[in-house]
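Structure tokens please, single chain.
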Amino acid sequence: MKTSDFDYTLPPELIAQTPTDRRDASRLLCLDRETGAFSHHHFYDLPGFLRPGDCLILNNSRVLPARLLGQRLPGGGACEVLLLIDRGDGMWECIVRPGKRLRAGARLSFGDGELTAEVCEVLPDGNRLVRFFCEGIFLETLERLGKMPLPPYIKAELQDRERYQTVYSRVNGSAAAPTAGLHFTPELLTRVTAGGVRLGYVTLHVGLGTFRPVKEDEIEAHEMHSEYCTVPAETAALINETKANGGRVVCVGTTSCRTLESWAGEDGTMRPCAGWTNIYIYPGYRFKVMDALITNFHLPKSTLLMLVSAFAGRENVLRAYEEAVRERYRFFSFGDAMLIL
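Here you go.
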């Protein structure tokens, strides 16, 4: 298939720049993937679409304040470092600016020297391996000095950094939020469980490859980025029990979907696991575990739009997106949501 098959027209003013005042007040477009029919709701209506015996799978990864603004040493020229992957022993894979000046051996300072760093290696894709040094605990220092790594299409300043975290985030490691989960409140989760739906958690640390455009004409030629994910034993058991009892596995976000589909057996049996995944889901893929999906509206020509199209059908999805544009839904990370059943 062609990458152009997953394009659509989006007025720039529909790209949400700030979160809604109330997380669960965002709109919800419900799409029936069998018939292509859709209907309009709000996210707080979600419990009405779930059944007793279903399970909801959520990604509990927490976004690091991974954007550091500092100075080059010596000389004091400005620099920016975005942490991507923890390689251990103080070493991180990073994106840096200005790239031409930050070669191997370059030294950096952040927070008046509270945190320092050295560029150790330039990787083939242009990323850098950077080793950090500080007196205290690195993650605590990062909490003080770092900024949230918002996607490039969000130009507004984030007033409350917790609005770029899900209310159930627990495990530090993401460079971007699993945004489908941003709509949940503790009260909404209570309503969900009161209706007989059980919650299970996975962890997938979202990388910036999420926002990388597909540049190849043929979608099969695209090389997918890798992300680290885990499925705990209790979540695997919950999924297997749900399936055995005729319930549905409802994934919150494409990250939860990719985690489950990466590690499930061909018969849909889930097992505990931890490791790297670069699973690439596009039309023609046979889903092994997921029965329903909660997701935001994705960028044109993106791998995430291809995943949603694999689940619900490309024509159904593009028609739903056209309807969302007509109805002035808000798009992307801080935007509205879809429920695909």
